[in-house]
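Session log. Operator J.P. requested a structure for one protein chain; no other inputs attached. Running the standard single-chain path with token output.
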Amino acid sequence: MSIDVETAARVASLARIQVEEDALPELAQEFNTILGFIEQLNEVDVEGVEPMTSVTPMRLKRREDVVTDGSQQEKILSNAPDAREGFFAVPKVVE
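Structure written below.
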């Protein structure tokens, strides 16, 4: 697959990146280089290779998955303009 100047301009537009007209050919070439690297990676046989999270084997730290209230209710409600009975108080908007 080859990226032309028009496609590079479209990608830049979708990414909301302002690219000058004279820089578009260089950007298209960079995209083509990246795609070339991806094609090389697709040629590598990875059959039987286990996925890894790091280059050095490490056990991930695990914690018990429990639902808590965060133990910060008073701290959070201290920022509220109006709090009652442990909740944010807001004006009534529906009659």
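Operator note: The radius of gyration is 27 Å.
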